[in-house]
Amino acid sequence: MSKKFTFMIMSDTKGVTRRFVISDAWVKALIAIGFVGFILLASVVVDYFGLLFQDLETKHLKVENRRLHNQVDLIEGKLENLEAALDRVHSFTTKLRLITDTKDENRSLKLAIGPIARDPESLEAADDISRDPAAIMPHQEESVFFAKPLLESAEGELARTDDRGYHSLSIRFDRAIKHAALREQGVLELWESLSVRQSLLRATPSIKPTRGWYTSPFGYRSSPMTGAMALHTGLDIAAALGTPVYAVADGVVSFAGYDGGYGKLVSVDHGYGVVTRYGHNSELYVQVGQKIKRGDVLSAVGNTGRSTAAHLHYEVRVGGIPVDPVNYILEQ
Q: How much is the average pLDDT of 87-107?
């Protein structure tokens, strides 16, 4: 015979008494249901707080991820500036090598070739770094950081995997460091070479002859006078009438006077087969046979000869052959 439990509920105000008789089976069932309900409620509470904590952690990681992205952007900007600086050093040392190459008697012809680096152990070697497997592999200690992404996508976190990641930046830093080392070696070699070639350097064109802006480069163009295609043998620099024209290197004045289409013209012989010419001047301040040094005032910008406006026509001739004067302006 099963046990029964009697529950009585009495009211103090109405004096009514209620009786409930429940078998022990129902009591056990209610206890089991209550226990299961407590377990479920506890599970819900634990899951809720777990999800709340995970959401807070995810937000924190997103903020950290954004901060890291900003840092990567900042580092990349500095790296781009470094790479641009190395490119400028490369261009500058290339021009220096071009105008100071005296290894054989054919220097004059080499000056007319253009700005091409010739030293395989310095400048050209730097351009071959991209083909060096060691240059595109991370260091051993860095590989630990590249074994997995910074953030786990399985945890619902966001990670950027474009070409501006840590791996790519590390490769670019390694390449920039190697480039810098090669550039430094090349500059040191140039310094040693230039220290024993001072006279040659002083006689080699290297500065802009007047203040102004370029209007017509060296090369073939439509002639402003005839409209026909013709070789423009120099570089036109527009400037105000009377602007001083400076000697670009040491030399001796070989011509100073009026010469047809050039108008008032000054020619300077710098030796080693190099001659510079300055045309369309308004005034001439030097005479034939006069020794001049780089920076001396030769003339004033004008509009004489076959000219349509005030400007300087600047030529560099090597062995009698016109070459691009831009290759001999190192200050740009």
A: 64
